[in-house]
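Reminder to self: tokens first, then the designed residues, so the page reads top to bottom the way the pipeline ran.
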């Protein structure tokens, strides 16, 4: 991040702007942080790094972080609770591993999928096909 501090915001890529915005929010040490698709313009490495930092800070600072994510694999790995909306209606809310289920994925996202633990025991989303 320090390398980006000397650059004009207009010269940054979309992903770099997202990282700068997240850093600006976090440096203020908020009790509650709301982020809308903070990983959408980031490569996979930066997605995992950012979500790992957010997870760690939420735990260390006892901070509430609300994140809108479309990547349900990331939601399964990094969140405690999930809310699923469909056409502006709340469909499900609760612990992430209970909310994101094969049944919900079929109903809301119209896919056949399963959730299995990885070698480290974390839940992994495996999408098999569109229904």
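Designed residues (131 positions):
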């Amino acid at each position: 991040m320090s390398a980006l501090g000397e650059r004009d915001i207009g010269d940054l890529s979309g992903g770099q702007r997202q990282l700068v915005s997240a850093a600006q929010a976090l440096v203020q040490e908020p009790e509650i942080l709301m982020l809308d698709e903070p990983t959408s313009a980031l490569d996979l490495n930066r997605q995992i790094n950012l979500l790992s930092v957010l997870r760690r800070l939420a735990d260390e600072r006892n901070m509430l972080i609300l994140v809108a994510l479309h990547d349900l694999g990331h939601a399964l790995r990094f969140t405690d609770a999930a809310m699923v909306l469909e056409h502006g209606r709340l469909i499900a809310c609760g612990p992430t591993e209970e909310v994101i289920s094969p049944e919900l994925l079929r109903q809301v996202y119209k896919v056949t999928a399963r959730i299995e633990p990885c070698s480290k025991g974390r839940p992994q989303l495996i999408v098999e096909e569109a229904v």
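Helices lie at 14-27, 44-61, 72-78, 96-99, 102-109.
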